[in-house]
Amino acid sequence: MSDDRLDHMRALADEGAALAAQARAAEQRASGATATDRSGAVTVTLDDQGRVSGVAVANGWRRLLGSLALDEAVIEAVGAATRRRFEAWGDAYAEQAPVAAGSVDREDFARRLQEAAGGGGPMSVEDSEAALRELLALVESIDEGLDEVSGALDGALRATYTGRSSDRKVQVTVTGGGDVTAVGYDRQWLLQAHEVNIARQTAAAFRAAYLEAGRHGVREIIADSRLGEAQQLAQDPLGLARRLRLTD
After folding, report:
1. Taking the mean position of all CA atoms in its chain, how far away is CA 196?
2. How far apart are CA 62 and CA 65, in angstroms?
């Protein structure tokens, strides 16, 4: 492998580590985004993946909205919380220093690879280049996997999935990408239900919708593609070390 290609791989590895650190910091800032619809009747909270994890319905919501507009208020609150989450992501990235490209030299990169495997001594040039070849093969596999799943992902992200609360009084429909497209209520039940029960059943319907999307969505497509191998290695440091020939 040429020195230029090795240098490029080192730069990619360094940038990837820095970007991952930035993403973790941004995720912490964005987690728990909360927003309310314009009337103040509905408040939703998002988890660290941008999904609705909590719903609160204000006492007197019927006076604020009328008894038939709660579904629109829920969708509006989700949209506001999503925008707030994106703003938190943007602020977190803006406050961080930009990623420096190509800042890892040959010896430092070899040392970091060895530390990742838990080894004690420095890597030889031959071992370092062998590890970098494996990294390149892994990157190429990811690139091929992206081509493989791109069409399928587009369809999965556009598909819609519906979940219902346990008593089937509330239903929520989301896309494979997590966007909320519809919230529906049993109108007769809604006229008399307590706001605490409405909130609880709405949150349950969101959980059911996300679960249904998860059964047929993006994760399954990735798991069945070449990207699945890279995902498994990312979750298995020892397996990655073996792939990079850093350990037996």
Report:
1. 29
2. 5
Residues 6+ apart with CB under 8 A from 60: none
Q: How far apart are CA 80 and CA 5, in angstroms?
A: 45
The tens digit of pLDDT for each residue in 144-186 reads 666 666 667 777 778 899 999 999 999 999 998 889 999 999 9
- Residue that the structure tokens 């109108």 belong to: 187
**Distance, CA of 155 to CA of 177 (rounded, Å):** 10
- What number of other Cβ atoms are within 10 A of residue 100's Cβ? 11
CB atoms within 10 A of CB 16: 12
| 154 CB-near residues (< 8 Å, 6+ apart) | none
Euclidean distance between CA atoms 37 and 84, whole angstroms: 13
Q: Which helix (H) or strand (E) holds 176?
A: none
pTM of the entire structure? Answer: 0.64
Tokens of residue 222, six digits: 């990735």
Residue 220 contacts residue 155 (beta carbons within 8 Å): no
List for the chain the helix, strand, coil content (%; round to 5). Answer: 60, 10, 25
Distance CA 61, CA 39 (A): 9
Structure token pair of residue 116: 């990742």
Place 230 in a pLDDT band, splitting at 50, 70 and 90. low
* pLDDT of the residue at 117: 47
